[in-house]
Design brief:
about 130 residues, mainly beta, Immunoglobulin-like, 1 helix, 7 strands, Hsp20/alpha crystallin family protein
Length: about 130
C-alpha cells in the first residue's frame, strides 16, 4: 500500500471533503488553537473559505459561542450553519476588554486576563 506524500494534495483534498460535507448538509469542525500569553490568551479558529460577514461570536456569561452561517441565496433569509462551537471561559478573563479579529483564513478572539490574578487572603482568628 502506497501512502500519499504530497502535502499540498492532502490539504486540497481535505478542504474539498469539508466543503462537500457542508454542501451536503453537514457541519464542519474548524481547527482550534489556544495560545496563552502573559497578559492574555488568544483563541484561534481556522476558517478557510469563510468570510467575516458569515461569522458570529456571542458571549453569554462565561460561555463563548462561535458560529458561521451560510446563506442559501441572496433572495431568501434561509441560513444554514457551517459550524457552531461553544467554549467555557475561565473566571480570570476581562470580558469587557475582549475583542474579535477576522484576518485571512482565521478568526481570533483575544481574551485579556483580569489584572492582579490570584491573591492570598488573610485568615481571621476568633
Amino acid at each position: 500500500m502506497k501512502l500519499i506524500k504530497d502535502k499540498k494534495f492532502l490539504q486540497n483534498i481535505a478542504h474539498y471533503i469539508d466543503a462537500t460535507n457542508t454542501v451536503g448538509g453537514g457541519v464542519i469542525q474548524p481547527q482550534v488553537r489556544l495560545e496563552k500569553r502573559k497578559k492574555e490568551a488568544i483563541l484561534q479558529i481556522l476558517l478557510p473559505g469563510v468570510e467575516a460577514e458569515q461569522c458570529q461570536v456571542i458571549l453569554d456569561k462565561n460561555q463563548l459561542t462561535v458560529m458561521a452561517l451560510h446563506q442559501q441565496d441572496s433572495l431568501t433569509a434561509t441560513l444554514a450553519p457551517l459550524f457552531h462551537q461553544n467554549f467555557v471561559l475561565p473566571a480570570n478573563i476581562d470580558y469587557a476588554q475582549m475583542r474579535v479579529v477576522h484576518e485571512g483564513r482565521e478568526l481570533r478572539v483575544y481574551l485579556p486576563y483580569l489584572p492582579g490574578g490570584p491573591r492570598l487572603l488573610d485568615i481571621e482568628q476568633r
